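Sequence in, structure out.
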Amino acid sequence: MIVNRITCVALLASLGLLAGCNPPRGTTSGRVDPSISTPAEVRDPRVLPVSLSEFSDQVAMEIAQDLGKRQLAPAGQRATIILGDINNKTQIVSSTDFEYVRSKTRNSLLKSEFVRGKVMWVENRARLAQLAAREGVGTVENPAGPPAYDPRYTYTLNGDMFRISRGTTNLYWMEYQLVNFSTNEIVFSSATEEKRGTF
């Protein structure tokens, strides 16, 4: 009897807590599935977050496929890939949106044992130098870190983002390229475009 009362009180308390977490009636705020576009996003002239996520998946898949066909470094060695710059010419989309694509792409590829056997992703030296100085690992002038990368087998993942605007319609072109440091050759490119408008 006492156990049942305690159980009922605990159940009612948890239901009360859960009810307190729900948004008020008439509102639609709360956690949203990342694969769904909200009405506010659909009305926005910028690239949809869903499209950015899909583009990241596309880039990761195409890089993995490309690595199955070509050698970026001699057999037995791994190429080095550094996250490069983002050339954002859209004027209305934050570069942070495109950094999200790039970071999500890298994260997906780091999960692939096959890709990790072909390339290593490294953090840029400026960021590591700041952390080393803050944490007392080496100095800014002589940070602890890897030796110079061989430019023949070192690549950067760069992004170019453009927008063509006509009235209330925007056409976006988004491209990521792997560029070799030694030759400046673009050895890989993945791109997508999206048109956003109000009718």
